[in-house]
Amino acid sequence: MQTVAVYYEPKVKTYGFNNLKNLTLLRLRASLDNISAWLEQVDFLSDSNLKYFFAVVQNTDGKDVSVSLLFRSDHVDEVLQILSEKFEVNPDTMDVVRQVELIFFQGPHFGDRWGIAKNAFEALEKKQIKALVAGCSGAAIYLVFQQGEVDKAISCLKEVFQTP
Amino acid sequence: MVISFIRQPIFAGYIQIVLDPRKKPQIDGIKLSNELFAVRLSWGPTDEGMVSEFCHLLAKEKINMPFLSVERGEKGYRITCCVDKEQANDTKKLILDKYGNFHKDLEFIPHVGLLSIFPHQSSLKVLGVALSVFLKAGIGVFAVASSLSVLTFVTQYGGLESLVSMFEEEMELPQDHVPLRPEILVKQTDIIKEGE
Questions:
Q1: Is the terminal CB of chain B with fewer CB neighbours within 10 Å at N or C?
Q2: What is the pLDDT of residues A115-127, one digit of tens each?
Q3: How many CA atoms lie within 13 A of B185 on its CB side?
Q4: Phi, psi values for residue B37, rounded to 5°
């Protein structure tokens, strides 16, 4: 049985914008020669039951892997302490960006439709707001910003997306 | 988890991993995508507006990105995106016409797919074990992004079936679990017919 549903959107619908502040972005980097040690760090952290808000992993140019994890700021010191007990923590392998903010939102069939990411990034670009990390998968969009940018970013996004 | 490093010419190299059975995380399901085509692109910190420009480039030709990840660091921006395999040639041409002449950090990866597990429970254990599964399987991961409850991996399309078997071994899944596959076809148009 085939069911066809058609609807029209004068403005792209969302289910609303969610935001979180006072977060810290932890970036772990590893060369591929050292990937097992990196994975061991992630596994070691998993014993702590710390929860992340957003995760992005990228394998870059076949040489390096980076994982960006977003934690509550008051949890990051615990993360760093746990890691430093067993691993050498240095700026080459880890980057800590404190006081960042997160916007996440979703809408109907976002993952199946063209133009959604364009709408979001163009709106932000017009106001010179740049995401530190972003991920669009499934029907959700996650955007991480420097402190103080999330409210401006939501205003920009509301110009191109409809909220309930 | 015990990881012994043997040799790893690529991300999913030859690595022997022994997962601690006490650490089996519980998930409710796995979702697989159709075959996709991936693009990885990097550029310097001075090239502002490139993310927006890149998204505009694909959107104007009605090319959807079922997966997109963007990172901005000291060295600049890095994008990984996937498009439907039917739009691979159009995507490649658009990108090469726009960036090909000067972009050395541009890579096209055919025959990729998305493997999504849910719920991720914001758990580092789920993330760590999942990445270990890929390494153990010797199947590459090109990018990962989390969303509300789903953790999505961009990987080799041909490896999806064997990855499902390995996830079933390394994670607790419901007994009647079967991987979900795309069932709903969404067609989007900017043409509005009269009366609609």
A1: C
A2: 999 999 999 999 9
A3: 5
A4: -130, 125
pLDDT at B98 over 70: yes
| Residue with token string 């499934």 | A138
* Predicted confidence (pLDDT) per residue in A16-68, tens digit: 999 999 999 998 877 766 666 666 767 777 767 788 999 999 876 566 788 89
Helix (H, G, I), strand (E, B) or coil at B173: coil
Average pLDDT, chain B: 83
Pick from A54, A95, A114: CB nearest B188: A114
- Report the complex ipTM: 0.91
Question: With an 8 Å Cβ cutoff, is A73 touching chain B?
Answer: no
- DSSP H or E run through A111: none
Residue type, A4: V
Residue B75 to residue A132: CA distance in whole angstroms: 12
| Cα–Cα distance list, B99 to B43, B93, B103, B164 (Å) | 10, 10, 6, 36
Q: What's the pTM value of the predicted model, to 2 decimals? A: 0.89
CB contact under 8 A, B142 and A27: no
Residues of B in contact with A57 (CB under 8 A): 131, 141, 143-145
Name the residue among A39, A60, A133 with its Cβ closest to that of B42: A60
A72 by DSSP, 3-state: which? strand
Cα separation, A110 vs A115, in Å, equals 9
A62 at the B interface (CB within 8 A)?
yes
A137 and B122: CB-CB below 8 Å?
no
Place of tokens 């074990």: B129
Gap between the Cα atoms of B42 and B99, Å rounded: 11
Which residue matches tokens 């990984």? B80
Q: Which two tokens stand for residue A60?
A: 């870059």
In the block, tokens 């955007």 appear at: A143
Contact (CB<8Å) B127/A46:
yes
Residue B87 banded pLDDT, cuts 50, 70, 90 = very high
Asked if A31 reaches chain B (Cβ–Cβ under 8 Å), the answer is no
User: CB distance A58–B107 less than 8 Å?
Assistant: no
